[in-house]
Amino acid sequence: MTTAANASDSLQIGSHIFQSRLIVGTGKYAGYESMREALDISGAECITVAVRRERLIDSAGRNILDFIDTARYTILPNTAGCFTAEDAIRVARLGREILSQLNNPGADWVKLEVLGDAKTLLPDPIATLAATEKLVADGFQVLVYTSDDPVTAKRLKQAGASSVMPAGSPIGSGQGVLNPNAIRICLEYLKEGDPAYPVIVDAGVGTASDVTVAMELGVDGVLLNTGIAHAKDPLKMARAMKLGVEAGRLAYLSGRIPKKLYATASSPTEGTIAGALPASAKNSTR
Amino acid sequence: MQIELNGENREAPEGITVADLLEVLKLAGKPVAVEVNRELVIKARHAEHHLAPGDRVEVVSLVGGG
Description:
The complex is a heterodimer of chains A (about 290) and B (about 70).
Chain A: E1 11-13, E2 16-18, E3 22-25, H1 32-42, E4 46-53, E5 74-77, H2 85-101, E6 109-112, H3 125-137, E7 141-146, H4 150-158, E8 163-166, H5 180-191, E9 200-202, H6 208-216, E10 221-224, H7 226-229, H8 234-254
Parallel strand pairs in A: 3-4, 3-10, 4-5, 6-7, 7-8, 9-10
Antiparallel strand pairs in A: 1-2
Chain B: E1 2-5, E2 8-11, H1 18-24, E3 33-36, E4 39-41, E5 56-64
Parallel strand pairs in B: 1-5
Antiparallel strand pairs in B: 1-2, 3-4, 3-5
């Protein structure tokens, strides 16, 4: 099966190049087996993981890495759950240390999340910016989770982020892209004079059409987790998300027709055997 | 001596190294990362880094996440 987009239409983030524009998380699955299968079906080449304290009582327990082919996937470690720049930097370094041991290409990057509030999981823009600067100086390629605020997005790029990743809506909320116009302005700011700069919608997508809407706006990829993991059938949804990304990308590249208020006939208006338009069907404009 | 391991107090032999601690925890050779007093101790230094009383040690691994 060929990918929907042509072979040269790859996604480049920093030094990493992927054919798939879908990045999927590994959290919240009912089991590691269904996670493994959903990752496979999604077509993703890049997957995210979190860094957490080892459970020392149950260290003989199963490890997620036993269910991830580290030669196949580029692992993107996140700093989820961090509320300060300092903690996010610590977690980024710990993640890099583990991925270095695995010889995974993901050892040189991080998905930075510095949260401001546990209820909304909205990012703290000031701490996020500070952490971005420090991690870039420390040699990381930084992919930054942020809100859809265009000015913050611009500042994060200026700070050296390899990708800015505005949320479509709050993490895990499944509300889709709530403010497409904000994403459009983010794209305009971030890609001005730099059209290849990767912008990823991260978080909030609930179903395939949400992904398609995001891709049609012209973002370079979508990162999601809950939408697949908590679907009633995660495997079917993994395929739906894969197709949604491809459909949205192709539609974006195709250039959609402008929206018009009135109809335009698809069939020829000449040569119809029907009689003259009755007066009742005529209106003031046509 | 007492150390704090992943947020809990724990007895450890005087001067134990990070490498020996991981051995005790049956985590030697496993994909984990270690921090002592909020500073990363890279794997190459596990055998030479001796713990001191009161050290706060974090041993972390990868889990599912988005």
